[in-house]
Amino acid sequence: MTAPLKAVSFDLWDTIIDDDSDEPKRRAQGLRAKPQQRRHLLYQALNGHRPVTEQQVNAAFDAADAAFQKAWKQDFVTWPVAERLGVALKELGCDLPADELAGLAQALGRMEVELPPDAIDGIGDALDELSGRYKLCIVSDTIVTPADGLRALLDGYGLKKYFSGFAFSDEVGHSKPHPDMFNSVARQLGVEVTDMVHIGDRDNNDIKGAQGLGMKAVLFTAKRGVDRETTSADAICERHADLPAIIDRLAGGG
Fold it and tell me: Closest Cα partner for 221 from 236, 232, 206?
């Protein structure tokens, strides 16, 4: 007999938050795009000590990003921003005082908090309805913005109150689809991992990761639909207005 669903876990980026919806806001304010601004801040910091070119900084940042992607995809860990900066500095043969490096890492990690992207339409109403029937939690990788910043974003949208558990990869020590991410929130909520259904936009990280533990999983496609044709998801959701009914159907064994 299928275990009853007691909890719902949510991915964050392109499931709750519209990734890069802050970029038009940045352009409207005459600000650089986030990737360019992060590199520019490192360039400025280094030139306070020794001359480097923007081309050198870009090449070092590219190397650090490639190393991060490898660790994320192969080892299922997401390095904190300071560690990524450390890789870039090593590529450049440079160093920064510890306090400056910490300040730079904080500045890079706060960019999405200071000028936030948008929450995806309908998520507030969906969470409000679902929270009356299920325990809710977040299972999210931290790519640049750390866990405290992501909590601040959720609080700013008025959504943090709906969640009773949080698994952020920089706090858990692994990233999706590693089992530790899902097991962490199951422990926080006091449920079996098989009593949960996960919502996310990536088939490998969200759907396969959850299903590998015996969970059900829903592919959310409103902002990212590239996995739609090949997913093994138990259901596909195109908009948050439909999500409560989809979860209730899965809870009923449908």
Answer: 236
Q: Give domain limits for the chain.
A: 7-20+117-251, 23-114
**Residue 201 near residue 217 (C-beta atoms within 8 A):** no
- The predicted-structure confidence for 157-196, as pLDDT tens digits, reads as follows 999 999 999 999 999 999 999 999 999 999 999 999 999 9
Residue 4's pLDDT is 83
- Over residues 102-158, the pLDDT tens digits come to 999 999 999 999 999 999 999 999 999 999 999 999 999 999 999 999 999 999 999
Q: Within a 13 Å sphere around the CA of 127, how many CA atoms are in the beta-carbon half? A: 24
Geometric angle at alpha carbon 130, from 186 and 120, rounded to 5°: 100
CATH architecture of the region 7-20+117-251: 3-Layer(aba) Sandwich (3.40)
Q: Are 61 and 84 in contact (CB under 8 A)?
A: no
Angle between the 34-47 and 98-109 helix axes, to the nearest 10 degrees? 160
List, in sequence order, every beta strand (DSSP E) within the chain.
7-10, 135-140, 165-168, 196-200, 216-220, 235-237
Strand-pair category, 165-168 with 135-140: parallel
pTM over 0.90: yes
Residue in 53, 72, 74 with CA at minimum distance from that of residue 64? 72
Query: Rounded to whole angstroms, how far apart are CA atoms 155 and 119?
Result: 11
Judged on CB neighbours under 10 Å (0-12, 13-18, 19+), 242 is middle
